[in-house]
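Appendix B.2, paired examples.
Example (i):
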Amino acid sequence: MSYHQLFPDPPPQPRSPGRHRQEAAPQPWDMGHPGQGPSDAPSSYDDHADLGGLRSAYRKLRRVATLTALGYFVVFLLLSGYAPGMMTGRVSGGLTTGILLGLVQLPVALAAIAVYERIARNRVDPLARSVREQAEAATAATTGRPERSAWPQPSGGARA
């Protein structure tokens, strides 16, 4: 092994005398997701329509929240760099447009968080609850005993 190589070659693997190719034990990452490759997951996970809807709802929620908060910040930076005359314009007294837009960033970020939380609670959480309940019911049906979720349920917190 040379220290000048960026990615050195892996060490040689011992070979058994009877076989030309040694087969490694399956690893957890080789199992894939339900519906892909060898898996012990019940078949009802494979055909779960709400799971695709849940994925797309999370994806859409993340995109909207990110574009809202970061989009405003990028607009502020672009105006600061390419429109300095506008950003130094006086609104009233010693308050400039740049300072006003900078101060508005905090309420915009808080509004993005509030909208994210509201949409997550009203649209995404019911889908996640449905998927979890159906997965637990399918697990109970295949094993014959009810299985508790590995994820703890919310205890209530400040906004229960």
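Example (ii):
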Amino acid sequence: MYLRWLIFYLASVGSASAAGNCSYKALIEHLGLGNNDDIQMTSLRPVFKWKTPTFVYTDLFVTSITEVDEKAQSLSTQITIVHGWFSEFTKWDPDDFCGIKFCPIKKDMVWTPDIIITESIKTEFATKDNQYVQLLNHGAIVTSNTFAVTTACKMNLHQFPFDIQSCTLTFQSPIHSIEELIISPFSGASFLTLSSKKAFQTQGEWEFLSINMSKANVSTLGVLQDQLIYKITMKRRPLLYVINFLMPVFYFLILDLASFFIDSSGGEKLGFKITLLLAISVLLLLLQDMLPSTSSDIPLIGVYCVVIFTLIGISVLETILVNFLMAKGNQTAAVRPTESSSALSDAVKDTKGPPDSVTDRHEEQLYALDVLKQILMEFQAAATHQNQQERKSLSWTRVATIIDVIFYFLYVTTVIVFLITLFKAWFLR
């Protein structure tokens, strides 16, 4: 009876012990993670030999592009970073713990790599900080966090608003050398790009294109350190700028071309062109708010606006010149002389008197012939003068017309060549 009770007691104790090995608590105690005073587990690299480097495998996923500030040359994104590394102190056999292969624990219970983003201007957790890491039975430790990061990004705005920007995020340890810590990518670029596009949350002004990665080494105070560089490539959606800016400027140029068919005799043509010039000046003020003041290359949109502004300005000057020539031709119009008509009237008055004798009549006839000859000569001189004045007036008008026609064809040719060249620079590079 006593022996049977003893056997039952030992069996129950054994089963309780086996059940205790099936808990996370038993596993944590087995790994020595329950002691908060264990500096080796929390502060030192998890290797038995200091010459053994720690490999940290990293993945980066872009979930949204929140803001791109061209003036500040910065990029704000929401990213998810996954780190994984091996610890020689956290290995166990799953058979000893009822098949446990994964164990979540708090971060402060194990060593975590000190990896930063060197381009970061401002970094904060997009959600609550993840306080846990995942332990795997073969010694791997995995952690995942989502950050809202603002990083410095040098942008080339030469093709704005049809530009493609590439910004880099460099992962580096500020303390450990390349002999202690090596940062390597875990997944390929195609997998990260596809996963980021699936998880992308915003569809704003920028379209996410791809993620690429590369390795580099940098020397800091004579210590060689490892770097993992991610390049985020994105494309601007230009529809807003095309509708609100590029098309109005183009329409102003078309209206300026059409204004050459307005009659130049009045002032309507000149007033219309000046109005177009003032309208483009207002759009140039809007362009000043869009583009940064410091840029290595002149943006093509600036060239586009300045050239069109200059062309319309030259067109205004040409209209002023044509109007001046037209006015000068009108001022030199022929003036009909009045002296001949007065002389003719005097002669007619003199011949109306009654003749006194045959001799007087003969003298009057001779006098009348002389007067008629004089009047004829005056009419000939007046006609010659009038023809000269008309030819001079026609010459000024003809010069103005020739200048207007030649300038119009040169103007149209310049506009076509400029637009074709700008199109090639914008879209075919």
